[in-house]
Write a structure and sequence with these properties.
30 strands, 5-stranded antiparallel sheet, 34% strand, Neuraminidase, mainly beta
Length: 462
């Protein structure tokens, strides 16, 4: 299962769950024509239409507790073609800052007292939202075809901030997929995007703003990375600055289904990873000296963590520096991975040995350390996880410290907290009906939901 799945597939998934008729033959036919995101042998995706963006919200309380899971796998059949050692150096996330230690929230608030209020509609395949951190209170909205739009003072501005439709391929799982502003954007005017070019390959590029703060310079593009993509799906897409000032990049495993080339576990490819770059040094970047594979001649030094299938949105808690990674499952399990601030680099999240906490293919080499998800859900509840953010705003104090994430197909939104005992509690909060492609934050930490049907919503109190 890939991300984002076909819109028709998401709607079909909801229809099938709600039906009590015998739908198996029809389902097979429709999935064959729509290249279903839940089908295990699909190699590419097709464009999908926007919807009307209307959202209906109901609340569905559901709570589960999941222990923290990090284990050593011991087997007797190592595969010499795959990595058999874990890095020995200790690398820290957010090492440049002292992580905060807030008191965990005692519980998740009653969702009946809150709703998702429409901020703006009429967008064309919106896929992301962020802020520049420059004090302007502007929101920057990504449209998949290659536009970055600005929302300010209640209005969507008519002219784009950046237009790269002439060099970005779209759509399916391709297009303009990620945006991150440099921590010193106010001074240097740099921002970074993740998009697929006209050949379908991943490009990580830096752009500059013009003398007009509402216009970027398309001709200022400087490419940091160009990563060949063997298939049209599983392109990842996240770019995010960590609390240490380094740029983190999420890449998928290259696509098709089941990771046929084993890229998730291979350390000689940038696919199936989160990468970590120092964009303030070198031309166009330097490798941070504490990246886990700097001294390993058999691994690429850009790699920070690996064993991922298709990380669709990861984020750092802006208060603690903790890292949450949502990884889209194959055809059975969706997962949320977690690394607390100060975790070592080189973590292996297990794909394609495991899908979630469940064996998928092959047997890990003896002694290979794996980090398992803190929470997962099956395809009775959705089919494509969308990672979110930890709420750190001021308007909704009851939500402090709660990680919000959702599912593209079902429109469900969950809250996730770690209790004082170290267990993880997940609760289903909203059944939105939205095609959730992303969550985002404004400069004040308020949380927004991006609906692929063309609408942006904000979490507010009723």
């Amino acid at each position: 299962m890939m991300l984002p799945p076909n819109t028709a597939v998401g709607c079909l998934w909801r229809w099938i769950r709600g039906s009590r008729h015998s739908l198996f033959p029809l389902t097979i036919i429709l999935f064959a024509f729509l290249f279903s995101a839940c089908q295990s042998d699909r190699q590419d995706d097709t464009p999908f239409p926007s919807l009307n963006g209307e959202i209906t919200i109901t609340q569905s309380p559901e709570a589960t507790a999941t222990p923290t899971t990090q284990i050593q796998i011991q087997t007797t059949t190592p595969d010499p073609a795959l990595p058999q050692e874990t890095p020995t150096s200790l690398i820290t996330v957010g090492a440049a800052t002292e992580p905060a230690t807030p008191i965990p929230p005692p519980s998740i608030p009653d969702p009946d007292s809150y709703t998702w209020e429409q901020l703006v509609g009429g967008l064309d395949l919106p896929i992301g939202l962020t802020n520049a951190g420059d004090g302007s209170d502007r929101l920057f909205v990504l449209e998949q075809a290659g536009l970055i739009l600005i929302h300010q003072d209640g209005n969507l501005l008519p002219d784009p901030f950046l237009d790269i439709r002439d060099r970005a391929s779209c759509c399916g799982e391709r297009g303009l997929l990620g945006l991150a502003f440099h921590p010193d954007y106010s001074d240097n005017g740099f921002f970074y995007v993740n998009y697929t070019d006209l050949n379908g390959d991943t490009v990580i590029a830096r752009f500059s703003v013009s003398d007009d703060p509402y216009r970027a310079l398309p001709e200022s593009e400087e490419r940091l990375l160009q990563i060949p993509q063997p298939y049209g799906n599983h392109n990842g897409g996240v770019v995010e600055f960590g609390p240490d000032g380094y740029l983190y990049i999420g890449t998928g495993d290259g696509g098709s289904a089941g990771d046929p080339h084993g890229y998730g576990q291979a350390l000689n490819t940038l696919l199936g990873k989160v990468l970590r770059l120092d964009v303030d040094g070198g031309d166009p970047y330097e490798i941070p000296p504490d990246n886990p594979f700097v001294v390993d001649g058999h691994a690429l030094p850009e790699i920070w963590v690996y064993g991922l299938r298709n990380p669709w949105r990861f984020s750092f808690d802006r208060l603690t520096g903790d890292l949450y990674i949502a990884d889209v499952g194959q055809n059975a399990w969706e997962e949320i991975n977690y690394l607390p601030a100060g975790s070592p680099g080189g973590a292996n999240f297990g794909w394609n040995y495991f899908e979630g906490n469940h064996p998928y293919r092959g047997e890990p080499p003896s002694g290979l350390g794996l980090v398992f998800p803190v929470v997962e859900y099956d395809h009775d509840q959705g089919c494509s996880v969308t990672g979110g953010v930890v709420y750190r705003g001021q308007s909704l104090p009851a939500w402090q410290g709660i990680y919000l994430f959702g599912d593209f197909c079902s429109g469900y939104i969950w809250g996730l907290i770690q209790t004082i005992d170290g267990d993880w509690q997940k609760e289903l909060l909203f059944e939105t009906g939205a095609l959730i492609t992303s969550f985002g934050e404004d400069e004040n930490g308020e949380v927004y939901l991006v609906d692929y049907g063309g609408v942006i919503y904000r979490l507010v109190e009723r």
